[in-house]
Amino acid sequence: MTALEFSYVLQEMSKQLRPFAYRLTKDSEDANDLLQETVLKAYTNREKFSDGTNLKAWLYTIMKNTFITNYQRMVRRNTFIDTTDNLHFINSTDNLAENLAHSSFAMKDINEAIAKLEDAYKTPFLMHFRGFKYHEIAEKLNIPIGTVKNRIHIARKDLKGMLKSYASKY
């Protein structure tokens, strides 16, 4: 395959690579950078590509490896090393002590949110939370199993709405 043909095929394939780049980076600018870097690496290493093999898979592999390398480089760059005698990694989680204050606030908020649920939704939800199976809840409350599943689903949805401030924290 000539350089011109390879360039044309690479340009066509880049349209298919863009969604994968976005899934990896979760940011459109970073996805564009990753795509550009992948295309550049593929073009500069085009002699390593064997005709008759799967170009798409080759490009996806280049992109994935480039993303992993960039991520590892970023993590290393953000790791600070203390040069005192004991040589600790500042962002090391080996000896992490937490006072768990945030969890007591969260549990208080969760319990308050559960208390706000209507009894029709709260009872099946709490039974399921405590380990009861759907069919056991249905028998105990004398309601169809589909109703049990629906009420648990609605309770979860309502709780998720009431506790959305915790969505990105945990």
UniProtKB/TrEMBL annotation:
Q: Which InterPro entries match?
A: RNA_pol_sigma-70-like, RNA_pol_sigma-70_dom, RNA_pol_sigma70_r2, RNA_pol_sigma70_r4_t2, RNA_pol_sigma_r2, RNA_pol_sigma_r3/r4-like, WH-like_DNA-bd_sf
Q: What is this protein called?
A: RNA polymerase sigma factor
- Does the keyword section mention Secreted? no
Give the highest taxon in the source lineage: Bacteria
The entry assigns this protein to a family as follows: Belongs to the sigma-70 factor family. ECF subfamily.
Q: Where is the RNA polymerase sigma factor 70 region 4 type domain?
A: 109-159
Biological source species: Shiella aurantiaca
- Record bears the keyword Acetylation: no
